[in-house]
Structures are given as C-alpha cells and as structure tokens.
Amino acid sequence: MTQKATPFLMFDDQLGAALELYTSIFPDSRVLQRAQAGENGPVISAELVVGGQRFMAFNGGPHFRFTDAFSIFVSCEDQAEVDRYWDALVKAGAKPVMCGWITDPFGLSWQIVPKRFMELIADPSPAKSRAVMTAMRSMVKLDVVALEAAHAAA
Question: What is the dotted CATH code of the domain comprising 66-154?
Fold first, then answer.
C-alpha cells in the first residue's frame, strides 16, 4: 500500500491500547509495524491501517492532545453499521458528542456517518437539504429514519 500523505497520530502513552481498540472495531484494520520499548515494554510507535486508511502513530507524552480540529470520518452503509461502530466505541469508553461525533477514550474524535445522510444533504432542493441539516443538528448518534423523515416532510 503506497500512500504519499499519511495522518500521524500522537498519543500520550496509550498507543498499544488504541491499536487493540481500532483493529478490533473496524474491518480492514491491522497493525503493519510496531516498535516497543524493550521486549515486553509499551508500544512506542506503529504503522497501522484502520478501515483501509493507513496511519502512523507515536506515544509522544502528555503534552500531545487531540482536538476536534482533526477527526476520522467513517462512512457507513446503513443504520446497522452506524450502530455497530457507535456501540463498540461507547462500550470502550468513548463519549458521544453531537451530530454523529464521538470522542474515543484516547481523545480522538470520530464522525460516524451513514451514506444516506450525505445523499440527503446533496438534494438539489435547498429546503430539503436544510431540513436534513436541521434534523442532524438535533441528534447525537445519527438516525437514518429520522433524517429521511425530515427530508420527506420538507
């Protein structure tokens, strides 16, 4: 897999736990390389693939913090896939935020978004697109049925 530009994630000291979580939740995920501090020491750096996207990651210390300025957008086929990822992240200690955003236990923000939402907001009718956006803004986890209802009612 050749990728010229690769997101680089800086964790405090939880990289090993993050590798386990991400590769357990998302299909097409794996650790390509990892470096540890000693034979049984903590993971200090890794190259990984999450959902087909390659990342580099490093344990850089407590002065590195994730912000909402960077998030990982997960495009979901349907509500069942949204629910599966959302529920797995919540079970792992993630905090739901709003509008399909959730912050994992390491502080990294994820957007768990059904493809249907993107189709609905692309409607050429400004009223329908606006109605879907308004409905989305009232949600925490995105709900396809409610988004479609807002679209139909506009």
Answer: 3.10.180.10
Question: d(Cα 22, Cα 24) in Å, to the nearest integer?
Answer: 5
53 forms bridges with which residues in the sheet? Answer: 50
Topology (CATH) of 1-62: 3.30.720
Domain ranges of the chain: 1-62, 66-154
Beta bridge partners of 57: 9, 46
Please tell me whether the overall predicted TM-score, pTM, comes out greater than 0.70 for this model.
yes
The amino acid that residue 7 corresponds to is: P
Convert the pLDDT of each residue in 100-140 to its tens digit. 999 999 999 999 999 999 999 999 999 999 999 999 999 99
